[in-house]
Amino acid sequence: xxxxxxxxxxxxxxxxxxxxxxxxxxxxxxxxxxxxxxxxxxxxxxxxxxxxxxxxxxxxxxxxxxxxxxxxxxxxxxxxxxxxxxxxxxxxxxxxxxxxxxxxxxxxxxxxxxxxxxxxxxxxxxxxxxxxxxxxxxxxxxxxxxxxxxxxxxxxxxxxxxxxxxxxxxxxxxxxxxxxxxxxxxxxxxxxxxxxxxxxxxxxxxxxxxxxxxxxxxxxxxxxxxxxxxxxxxxxxxxxxxxxxxxxxxxxxxxxxxxxxxxxxxxxxxxxxxxxxxxxxxxxxxxxxxxxxxxxxxxxxxxxxxxxxxxxxxxxxxxxxxxxxxxxxxxxxxxxxxxxxxxxxxxxxxxxxxxxxxxxxxxxxxxxxxxxxxxxxxxxxxxxxxxxxxxxxxxxxxxxxxxxxxxxx
Length: 409
Fold this sequence. Notes:
16 strands
């Protein structure tokens, strides 16, 4: 099969490598530096397994900025471009995805287009209607940053949505699911074929459930911290119930990253626009809980600053923020929860110093940025870390974190 993958981010690159093991794959991106890196077998994102496969794997994989040349002979075109949430419109911005669909339909109307980008519920069906076709499919992704390829090689499930009124569309969905299964290391994977809107709904509700777990354990942690209880022991006690399980239970400063914040807000928007007034109290509470968690964390930080010192000491304190990235072994800090902490501290006129080697700027969100770790340690009165790291062990007495299990899930 000839496959074009549009977008060399976590989703696109992981899919491109997975499929290039048994197919001819061309990755498309508008960033020439990403394309050059990939053609030189260097990963443009931080993922050790991706880099290992690029160096040692037998991959039929090239990259280009010329989308038309990749689309022209493709059997499948996978769309993995950003669909950022627009807070003004309360909706995913799907303009880039729509432009790709339009271009592919003009250049190669026989190609099947597989949406991997997260989209509003009903989007793919509308695209099929708009372009008078049934060749646009939807296949949700369930990847973790920093472990994107691993999760594709060991998928929890493979889901492909198609316009089930058309036998050829259903057949194409089955073929595509087979390609994903063929590239996986895991031998037995549950494959679910469903209609387009059902597949889109799976994606948003799956992420909403994960966000709910984050919010739940964060609220448990907040209660324990406020009452002087051992949050780790309580969480272990709760999670030993097999119906609950010991996963996705490590407290944090809130859920963040590229998926959970925008997906929960989009789902909330889908509910709000429903004329039938379907109840959505839980989803609304999850979104609200993520904001109140940050408020609570800031209150605890301010309390720590004031403990054992004078008002003057507290006034002159500098809160150090260790890393903006969401997870260990990740270079992504889009929508990271700690950014909400920084913004709240700045609003309260607290001096903030950020240590983030990924940033070239000397300021971010109104806070100063340094790349010298020792200077960061020396100038910080208190160090705030969403996740602990070995290099913080020497200044552990300065660190405020809610990381109990050293896990990102």
